[in-house]
Amino acid sequence: MADLPASVDVVVSGAGAGGLAAARALGATGLRVLVLDRQRVPGPTAKGEILQPESIRVLDEWRALDALRAGDARPVDRLAIRDHTGAELLAIDYAELPGPYRQVFCADYADLREAIGRSLPGTVEVRHGVRVTGALRDDAGRVAGVRVAGGRGDGGAEVRARLVVAADGMSSALRKDAGIAVDRDEYPHRLLAFDVAEADVDAELSAYRTGRGLCLVYPLPGRRCRLYVQVRPDEFRASGTAELDRWCDALLAQVPAIAPLAGPLRASLHRRQLFAVHRLRAHRLAVPGLALVGESAHAVHPMAAQGVNSSLADAEALAAALDRETGVDAALESYQEARGPRLDHIATVSHNAARMITALSGAPRLLGARMMRRTAANPRLLRRTAGNLSGTDVRPLTFVDRLYQLGLLVDRNAGTTDRARPGVK
Ligand SMILES: Cc1cc2nc3c(=O)[nH]c(=O)nc-3n(C[C@H](O)[C@H](O)[C@H](O)COP(=O)(O)OP(=O)(O)OC[C@H]3O[C@@H](n4cnc5c(N)ncnc54)[C@H](O)[C@@H]3O)c2cc1C
């Protein structure tokens, strides 16, 4: 690893959306940033594809939106929750959001990385094929850089930095090395992701609430669409063509709403990825000398599509804290204070939304159905939900709002606009 710099201002471990966003935001303040990623070439992965309006705002500000559009990112105006036949249960109209960013974009994760990558300032260097193995510490025990694995015949190297950003994903080696504990829960189902080619689907995020749980469909660049299917951990063992066809027949019988996709789906069954689904929250977002960004710090159920929004917001908040405070460690404290409550809110919204659709039985399924009905019939709550999911108009639901959702109180203001006053967040 002879040609890595011995020291920089900031070293970022991980060149996913979180790491690149951190590099973009910190590099723009003039800091010298080195991004290291263990993958030589990032592989294709079915994640980070639904980009909420707040992500679009940030990407636009970073002048990364044109590159995303050039990759044929698909704009979407609404999210509809439907039953297995396709009947609409609840719809969120992004076009009614306040402000200029009122669309979701659906794009490949590789294109998102590419778009942020192209927007990086000259103060940032990205190196692929370099694995970070742990943190360096100074005499006081403060994180002061990283160790990286050596190539063949090379003993490895050290890079010193005033700030280390751990953006190395959910299993973050740096987070473990820093001794930051996490709460981590696995949902009792998995998600099977199909990349369906030659599929003309509506410009909609369609979440089907079915007897087997969630099916999610949305358009992707190049006349493709993504189909996620909720499966039991022991369900999907099919690997031969005949077995896959039988599994597909059963799926189409259970969810007739996706019948128009039958032909393209059958032709695309081999393009699939199976994901275990976790939620994760780190107990701290920083220790002296080191900040967590993105999935190293927080993960929520994918159906809420909040991961990229949260990762970009982490990056912005970290850069703002460094700009505001004197001294890196004071900035890290301030970063933790700013992001902690926001991440708690996102975790709650995402978990509730996921449970509403993925619960298969018992009280969670019944309550989910009731909350969905009450929310669908309440324009004020719908707008709030849209604001919270989009990230552009975040105002957590109150305890009383929850009572309205459960049908325990009648909301006399259901028809009001409930817009935030200017300057009030
Ligand atoms: C199935 C699924 C679907 C999702 N869909 C959406 C969605 O539609 N919208 C949305 O907003 N979010 C979605 N998410 C969440 C979103 O993908 C993540 O929040 C986002 O990718 C987080 O980015 P990250 O940079 O933190 O992590 P990652 O994208 O995981 O990047 C981590 C990087 O760190 C590198 N790395 C790891 N260890 C090391 C090391 N030791 N040294 C150097 N590099 C290392 C890896 O190679 C990787 O490139 C989804 C997640 C899943 C699982």
What does this structure look like?
The protein is 34% helix and 27% strand. It has twelve helices and 19 strands. Strands 1, 2, 8, 9, 10, 11, 17 and 18 form an eight-stranded mixed sheet that branches. An eight-stranded mixed sheet has the order 6-5-13-14-15-12-16-19. A hairpin with an 8-residue loop joins strand 10 and strand 11. The protein starts with 6 loop residues before the first strand and ends in a 20-residue tail after the last helix. Residues 421-425 have low confidence and may be disordered. The site of flavin-adenine dinucleotide (FAD) has 34 residues, from helix 1, strand 2 and helix 8.
CATH topology of the largest domain: FAD/NAD(P)-binding domain
CATH superfamily of the largest domain: FAD/NAD(P)-binding domain
Sheet with the most strands, sense and barrel status: 8 strands, mixed
Rg measurement, Å = 22 Å
Q: How many extended strands? A: 19
CATH architectural designation of the largest domain:
3-Layer(bba) Sandwich
Helix content: 25-40%
Q: Report the structural category.
A: alpha+beta
Which ligands accompany this protein?
A: flavin-adenine dinucleotide
Counted up, domains total 2
